[in-house]
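To assess whether ligand presence alters the predicted conformation, the chain was also submitted together with 2-(butylsulfanyl)adenosine. Input:
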Amino acid sequence: MERGAPTKSGRGEDLDKAKVKKLIENLRAEIHQHDHFYYVLDKPKISDGEYDKLFRELQGLEKKFPTLVTPDSPTQRVGGEPLKAFKTVKHGIPLLSLDKANTEEEMIAFDKRVKDALKEENINYFLEMKYDGLAISLKYFKGVLTNASTRGDGVIGEDVTNNIKTIRTVPLHLQEKIDIEVRGEVILPNEDFLKLNEARAEKDEAIFANPRNAAAGSVRQLNSKITSKRPLDFMPYYGSSQPGIDTEEKIMKYLFKIGFKSNPYLWHFNNIHDVIKYIKSLEDKRGKLQYEIDGVVVKVNSIDYQKKLGATARAPRWAIAFKYPPIQGLTIIEDIKVQVGRTGAITPVAHLKPVNLAGVTVKRATLHNEDEIKRKGIKIGDHVVVQRAGDVIPEVVKFVKEKRTGKEKEFKMINKCPLCGEELFRPQGEVITRCINASCPAQVVGRLILFCMRGAMDIEHIGPALAIQLYEKKLVKDVADIYTLKKSDLTKLERFADKSAQNVIDSIQGSKDRPYDRLLFALGIRMVGSTVASLIAQHYDSLEDLFDVKAAELTKIAGIGPKVAASVEHFFSQKENQKLIERLKNQGLPIKTKKVKGPQPLKGKTFVFTGGLDKISRTDAEELVRNLGGHPSSSVSKQTDFVVAGHEPGSKFDKAKKL
Ligand code: IVH
């Protein structure tokens, strides 16, 4: 708010607003600091609950006073309207590539080139990891993040500001109010990469080949809401020149000081032989890092020397990337066994003679599916080359022909589920064989886990381990049974005290008032993620209305294709599923959109609010719409019937006018 700017309602409100502004600023500073403790330093000072409370308080205030929202508010990390395309950005200084070395000799040759050009024998080298992700340039103006772009072809990149803002380790504002350009790599930690792929496989979505593709795909997403759900990380490796900073090492320390992450493996040495020794020692640690690296970058430490050495059109002369070879090894396939997933998908897995790949012992490798095994011609007993694909998931690359003895055995896909004994089924035209028995233990436990997950029914105290235990002890055989659990059932389990049992019961009870679209998602219907669930919930008031729904009817909803529709029709046509829903209803779960009393003049109409509302908060306005039978939405689309524009309406208003 501009100081002293008169408002229609006079000074009283002005003063109030000034107070709120201060309150908001304090909350932001506090949240900002806790983000730094949690994400950058990995040392949280408050519990998640306390943090959520602060965050919700800020959100509440910003909702009431939308004019006070600033671009660097922590609430802006959630992503916004989807884009049609990215704008292009011309980089002031091109983002160069790096020259590469694969051998010790090439490193020594680099050292010689540097020394010859500088006519200097004493060179200090600074070492950094070569992160395998997507290069990004961040521009800060007076300490506030104003623009983020991809490297593109080095000269022209894409404006991905909204997406980058969702990355928690990219500070929205710095500890100092400086102008600076920071470059670095957006990466996806290995563990998160695996989780992301698992979730995608469950939903029958294409999996990412490696963490780099996943990171790049997430940043180059037109819908920043999707990016915000990917646990991306940012590793800086460059900061534009700042007073008093004359070495690469000082830049890295300075970047840490102003709020960026720092890498524990930064090092410097006075001669190339020590550099090479260190690079070799890091190779063994490589497999154990939380993220992927494909080498080490060696930079001349002195900025003055860097300037003297300059760059070719392609790469600087003061740096070189030593690239590690892909992590591969030779071993034997002792057996091929199958695994059953949550959706009943059967995956063949190679059981290997243990082999060490860059410090990690590998005993299993995925063979993906039956056709993949045939395509590679792999047999049980084969000597094989295994590789940590994208250096993460071990996979079998090929068998070694020369080592064949003739005793190798062909793998035959089983025809009965190893867990429930049911006949397996491979739909025509698909590569995945499935167990379609809905009561197969793999599927039952999988459904329980999904049901309790965050974003689904969010039953905080039931995680995978407890879900398995509940199933094995026959306390729960489907999701409706969760609601019949008693405290005395839980105290019988190992390591369950009175208090922890009560926590479980409380979180179960607490889940009873989740909106019905969350329940629809939590049922674990194939191809129904949270977005599809909320789309369906907008068009059908109750789960019971879906019992005899036809796929053709569902495909009329924008965003629902024939495959998803068929899966939904199939699920609800099953008598067992209908019974399950009736039981959930009897347990007091909302299987309907909250019933609105009285006349419903807005039935079937979609409303979007934008800009500041004076007399009422946005939440209250949305509640009003709901009570009159309408549907409030956060984004403008062709389906929107009304846009309510308050003061200073944003891009939603522009979009509405266009449509
Ligand atoms: S320095 C002018 N340092 O590697 C110097 N780059 O192959 C150029 N990369 O586009 C960048 N880790 O995306 C530098 N520690 C690091 C790096 C790094 C990864 C990427 C970067 C660059 C590519 C060149």
